[in-house]
Amino acid sequence: MKIQEADAKKLLLAQGLPVPPWEVARSPAEARAAASRLLHGAGHARQVVIKAQVLVGGRGKAGGVRLAATDDEAEHVADDILGMSIKGIAVRKVLVAPAADIVRELYLAAVLDRAARRILLMGSAEGGVEIEQVAATNPDAIVRIHADPLLGLRDWQARELAFRLGLNAHLKATVGIAKGLVRTMLANDADLVEINPLAIVREGAGAGEERLVCLDAKITLDDSALFRHQDHEALRDPDEEAPADAEARRHDISFIHLDGTIGCMVNGAGLAMTTMDLVKRAGGEPANFLDIGGGAKAERVAAAMRLILAEPRVEAILVNIFGGITRGDEVALGLIEARKQQSRDVPMVVRIVGTNAAEAARLLEEAHFETAASLDEAAEKAVAAARAQGQAA
Amino acid sequence: MSILIGRETRLVVQGITGREGEFHARAMQAYGTAIVGGMTPGKGGQKALDDTVPVFDTMSEAVRETGANTSCIFVPAAGAPDAILEAAAAGIGTIFCITEGIPALDMVPVVAAVRAAGATLIGPNCPGATSPGRAKVGIIPGSIHREGSVGVVSRSGTLTYEAVQAMTDAGIGQSTCVGIGGDPIIGSTFLEVLQLFAADPETEAIVLIGEIGGAAEEEAAAWAATNLAGVPKAAFIAGRTAPEGKRMGHAGAIISGGAGTAGSKVAALEAAGFGVAGSPTELPQLLRDAGYRG
Q1: pLDDT on residue B1
Q2: Which residues make beta-bridge pairs with A289?
Q3: Which of A143, A226, A237, B253 could form a disulfide with A164 if both were Cys (CB 3.0 to 4.6 A apart)?
């Protein structure tokens, strides 16, 4: 689960990391009030930065991050940004913070390194740009240090990171931040804690004191660990979760919306991806990824059917079940029930093999379902059905 | 011979008194696997599976009393990491963790501790393994298999069943079929399982079933190119149509920052001499094309 910058910054603060103050505004008037406090309050910021709060990258490039020097300007800028849509996501909130006087920008992140099966600390002297870009153009600029799987990130490792990033003048701060990122990761079960940029900023007027701070924050939480972080449920942004996704989550169905016309219902993630691939190979386009999970009963099958049919573009449905834990006859009963309730008539091709397949076949035949023996045949039949349906419409 | 499990397997099922644990333990026993014990804390002294299997409170007791060498875990996610550590501490050599939904960071120290104990962990979030005609540990339906000499390694569950069924239907049997699990942090990777197959005299061909996310398929392909050069090899990669940045069901199945794509994996496998199938049903023919005669 991705969380918003402002929420990520809260999690960093909770671990004692240096994050400059900010406010969240949902309207131009709120943004104006926030800017006013920052510009005329104790901090005497010369400018404020107003940042779109959306869970997609590239906010800056899209014009979702801008500066303002007065209350009026802040209100106008916020009005612009709050009307924007970035990569299809409507901006509903902005973050308002004092504009930093940046001396130098770096990148620092703690990520789960799958191959090494350890936490990896990744730093780069090139901040403010995407790390993938640095990895492609200047891979030697990236410093990689693995935390010990049993002992964690040790001070000497964090010092090494600081020296290799040229942060000698900020040694103590760097060690604190590096260890803080790993702590944030562990405390919250995050897959990723990314600070980009980590910045040396000048504070106070003129040649003020230089300080290392976290100017941006991106955190991804491990969905599997939400059961032990009740407080994290509040960080799920309802503005950015499609109703179908919330519905799928309620029924323990793994669902991802795609742009095609053939709805897919499958048990198992690998097989669900394969079914999509074979639909594409047969000349069609999948409308979704959908894994009903292991041991699905009739009720979950019916819920899956509703999710698929909620998309008006769907012109045919392909059901592919390889029964192991899942019983074929349970799925067949669920399909029969779902078809009785379904709001519109969409052709369906069903393939059920494995546990209780014979029983399933009998049920499906009695209910006059179109069936297929092999996965390839099922995909071809579904694509043909969608074409016929599309032409009829 | 086979890898990981075989006739010498003496299995303890951790969580045998739970619904899942009991159901699958029954199927394993019916397949012919020697289940020598079950373990559920607080239920020691009971008998499971129609009074045929003693239940123990602890793994150390189970090992001491039965000489068990393998365990299979059906414990809920919150307790599964501990179950793995308990098995390793008791001296179990091969541990299968079927449990789905274990927080990834829990597995980082667990994998390291299991290694330090000298044990092999398969999973979590995996279907287990079958050595057809010898033993099955986990949840793979026994009926899809046929005895033979192709080693199968996969990240998925039902997709593996699909591929194995296609092989069996074509008359191609398996030496061992291993599901390594779809999580980001797993005990044994494709590479580590390929190394076991390479050392197994009965495995004469390889089928690898991967999916988008990570770089484990690429790593395995690079190793196979030199170490399994003369062995017929076929592969299938799921997720050619998966969009970037979305987790496709498995916690580990995600394309991020342009890495972990099906295209990259297919290219690496083809370069290493694998025939890469467009559908799991094509795997048998690709093995034949690669010279497999078994």
Answers
A1: 67
A2: A256
A3: A143
Residues 130-159 on A with a CB inside 8 Å of B are 130-132, 149-150
Residues B260 and B154 in one domain: yes
CA distances from B97 to A176, B13, B183, B191 (A): 37, 10, 11, 19
Q: Which residues pair with A191 in a beta bridge?
A: none
Same domain assignment for residues B145 and B284: yes
Do A270 and B246 lie within an 8 Å CB cutoff?
no
HSE of A312 in the Cβ direction (CA atoms, 13 Å)?
1
Q: Which residues of A touch B219 (CB under 8 A)?
A: 115
Residue B1 lies in a domain: no
Alpha carbon separation from A295 to A188, A236, A331, B20, B162 (Å, rounded): 30, 28, 9, 10, 17
Q: Domain boundary residue among B73, B91, B122?
A: B122
> Is residue B3 situated within a structural domain?
no
Within 133-172 of B, beta carbons closer than 8 Å to A belong to 139-141, 144, 154-162, 165
Distances in Å between the alpha carbon of B121 and those of A286, B94, B180? 36, 6, 9
Per-run averaged pLDDT (10 residues), chain A, 393 residues? 95 97 97 96 89 90 94 97 90 96 95 95 87 83 95 97 96 98 98 96 78 96 94 89 87 93 96 97 97 87 93 95 88 91 88 91 94 94 92 74
Average pLDDT, chain B: 96
Strand partners, A288: A257
pLDDT for the residue numbered A206: 60
Instruction: Please state, in angstroms and rounded to a whole number, the distance separating the CA atoms of residues A77 and A90.
Output: 16
Q: How many CB pairs under 8 A join A and B?
A: 166
Q: Which residues of A touch B106 (CB under 8 A)?
A: 225
How many domains, chain B? Answer: 2
Domain boundary among B122, B151, B184: B122
Q: Please indicate, yes or no, if residue B261 is contained in any of the structural domains.
A: yes
- B131 found inside a domain: no
Mean pLDDT of all residues belonging to chain A: 93
Judged by DSSP in three states, A126 sits in coil
Structural domains in chain A plus CATH codes? 1-20+101-240 (3.30.470.20), 21-99 (3.30.1490.20), 242-392 (3.40.50.261)
- The per-residue pLDDT for A391 is 82
- DSSP SS3 for A194: strand
Domain of residue B40, CATH code: 3.40.50.720
Q: Could you tell me the end-to-end alpha-carbon distance of chain A, in angstroms, rounded to an integer?
A: 38
pLDDT at A208 (0 to 100)? 73
Average pLDDT for runs of 10 along chain B of length 294: 93 96 96 98 97 98 98 97 98 97 97 98 97 96 96 96 96 98 96 98 97 94 97 97 87 79 96 97 97 92
- Which structural domain range is residue B82 located in? 11-122
Same domain, B220 and B251: yes
Spatial separation of the C-alpha atoms in residues B119 and B125, rounded to whole Å: 18
pLDDT confidence of residue A205 = 60
pLDDT at A207: 63
Q: Do the Cβ atoms of A234 and A227 come closer than 8 Å?
A: no
Q: Nearest CB to A354: which of B161, B243, B248?
A: B161
Q: What is the CATH number of the domain that holds B174?
A: 3.40.50.261
First to last CA, chain B: 15
Q: Are B93 and B156 within one domain?
A: no
- The amino acid sitting at A175 is V
